[in-house]
Amino acid sequence: MKILENVSLKEYNTFGIDKKAHFFIQAKEIQDIREAITWSRTQKLPLFVLGGGSNVLFTHDLEAVVLKVNIQGISISRESGEHVWLKAGAGVVWQDLVDHAIKKGWSGIENLSWIPGTVGASPMQNIGAYGVEIREVFDHLTAVNRETLQTETFDNEACCFGYRESIFKNHLKDKYIISYVVLKLNKQHHFNTSYGDVQKTLEELGYAPDIQSISEAVIRIRQKKLPDPKAIGNAGSFFKNPTLSQETFDRLKRRFPDIPGYTTANGVKIPAAWLIDQAGWKGKRFGQAGVHHRQPLVLVNFGAAEGKDILDLSKMIQEDISQKFGIHLEREVNVI
């Protein structure tokens, strides 16, 4: 286990915020995780776990041991006539896993193409896009208990998945470190093309729905709507889409006839991007921080923004949306 000191985290977060870690460790296997936990205790420093850095905003240097989980490997855990259970290390880039599944002809995660981050973060925040969430194909994961250093298994039910959350973001936050994830993918395909512009994009491309074409359509849509973090610092969607009661939505509909809403099991989901756009924030810039000109749900770093600059901007947006619509926007990005 190699321990580095005073390491810049600029290359390890998609916002490109230049904050430092007091100590930095990369875990390439489960034993590295255990040793990092033990060593952080001897230093009397907190242990901060870093995945792909695509869902985090650093606002200060970390007086901590930063552990980047970099466990690799993709393999078949089980297989049947209809399904394959695909096991991947927590450090595998999510898109690499999607590409692997597509190449093998296994469906279930093609709608989740081009989502930044690592496999380990996917169940933690229950990633979702274009009508599909990770919980729909999730089988189980293994994670190291920070207290006992033992490896434990969590099945789908135990993860308590919700909208962009799981038990690891609330009740078990900072209690476990995910090491491997197993997904149950399909050999017999049932495609989901009804959400967003997927079907429309397939028709424009002249493609019949299959795993590869749906992935290409989703990537094309996301590239049009979302800026590439390699070109401009961002963490994708900064806010969650709020869910309102039907009564609250109907009341808003009378005030704002054009407000869109999508009925779910928990109420009516409102696109946060619509709220931010209607409030006039799209394309606004404040020094080195701003709101993307095409996608108001994305806050960006034009190159030299501090994490605090982006956080302050997000607070202004939250306050404005609350005053105009009576809706509180919840951040999807983790602020550190």
UniProtKB/TrEMBL annotation:
UniProt EC number: 1.3.1.98
Domain of life of the native organism: Bacteria
Pathway membership, UniProt: Cell wall biogenesis; peptidoglycan biosynthesis
Residue ranges occupied by any FAD-binding PCMH-type domain in the UniProt entry: 16-188
The reaction(s) this protein catalyses: UDP-N-acetyl-alpha-D-muramate + NADP(+) = UDP-N-acetyl-3-O-(1-carboxyvinyl)-alpha-D-glucosamine + NADPH + H(+)
Any one GO MF annotation of this record: UDP-N-acetylmuramate dehydrogenase activity
InterPro entries listed in its UniProt record: FAD-bd_PCMH, FAD-bd_PCMH-like_sf, FAD-bd_PCMH_sub1, FAD-bd_PCMH_sub2, MurB, MurB_C, MurB_C_sf, Oxid_FAD_bind_N
Cellular compartment(s): Cytoplasm
Keyword Cytoplasm: yes
Cofactor(s) required for function per UniProt: FAD
SUPFAM superfamilies associated with the record: FAD-binding/transporter-associated domain-like, Uridine diphospho-N-Acetylenolpyruvylglucosamine reductase, MurB, C-terminal domain
Record bears the keyword Hydrolase: no
Role this protein plays: Cell wall formation.
Record family assignment: Belongs to the MurB family.
Matches recorded under NCBIfam families: murB (TIGR00179), PRK00046.1 (NF000755)
Protein name: UDP-N-acetylenolpyruvoylglucosamine reductase
Gene behind the chain: murB
